Amino acid sequence: MEMQVKLTSLAIKMEKVYSILEAHENEGDINYLIDIDFSHPVFKGHFPKKSVLPGVMMCDIVRYLVSDKLGLKVKLVFAKNIKFSKMIVPSENNTYNVKISIIEEQEKYNIRSIISQNDDAYFKLNAEYKTK
């Protein structure tokens, strides 16, 4: 069963770097389609001659989307596994899929996330989050 996801204001700060084009739930996963804005000032310094989305921003995108979904501000407390498979750089298609699975366990949230485009995974995260 597919459900629409309501977006709150928690993701507004990061939405300057990315915008959410679509959001829906399917079989317990939340799936977002986001567009990266490579004209954002962060890319002038990272890196001036070849823009690359910083890894910390990939982690932050997931954090903001999880916070938005839960309606709570969360923080990363333990990264079980983070894998940066490919660099996210400007291209003809700057839209990416973000798939997030959230499992709540005794005051913590186990999060699995993948940022991908087509069949290529760029970033994978398996981590534990808690409310701020």
- Distance separating the two termini: 31 Å
Mean pLDDT: 88
Strand order of the largest sheet: 1-2-3-5-6-7-4
Number of strands: 7
- Measured by DSSP, the beta-strand proportion falls in over 45%
Question: Which spans have pLDDT < 50 for at least 5 consecutive residues?
Answer: 7-13
Number of contiguous helices: 2
CATH architecture field? Roll
Q: What series of H and E elements makes up the topology?
A: EEEHHEEEE
What is the CATH topology descriptor? Thiol Ester Dehydrase, Chain A
Q: What structural class is derived from the secondary structure elements?
A: alpha+beta
Share of helix, binned: 10-25%
CATH first level: which class? Alpha Beta
- Count of discrete structural domains: 1
Q: Main β-sheet, in a few words?
A: 7 strands, antiparallel
Q: In the CATH hierarchy, what is the superfamily?
A: Hotdog Thioesterase
Overall 3D form: globular
Task: Write a structural description.
- With 132 residues, this protein is α+β, with helices and mostly antiparallel strands.
- The chain has one domain: Roll (Thiol Ester Dehydrase, Chain A).
- It is 15% helix and 48% strand.
- It has helices at 42-45, 55-70, and strands at residues 2-4, 18-26, 29-36, 74-84, 95-105, 108-117, 120-131.
- The chain has a 7-stranded antiparallel sheet with strand order 1-2-3-5-6-7-4.
- The longest helix is centred in the middle third of the chain and has 16 residues, at 55-70.
- Mean pLDDT is 88; it is low at 7-13.
